[in-house]
Amino acid sequence: MIASPARLDWSGNKRRNPKAVNHWMRGRRLLCHICSKKTFLCDDTGAPCHKVCAEAVQQRWGGESR
Ligand SMILES: [Zn+2]
């Protein structure tokens, strides 16, 4: 069975997700550490990263967050 595509909530909406992290780097553009293209976003660790790239990585690792 193939899991449905991973969907990360990067909206930063703390009402919907109390653990929401601000993934918007305030207009700074840095190179995504996965695809090496410029992005305005960062992942949970603060490293520059596209949302789609982070989702692809999460999917590759099984999509489970524990
Ligand atoms: Zn990327």
UniProtKB/TrEMBL annotation:
Protein name: Uncharacterized protein
Species of provenance: Planomonospora venezuelensis
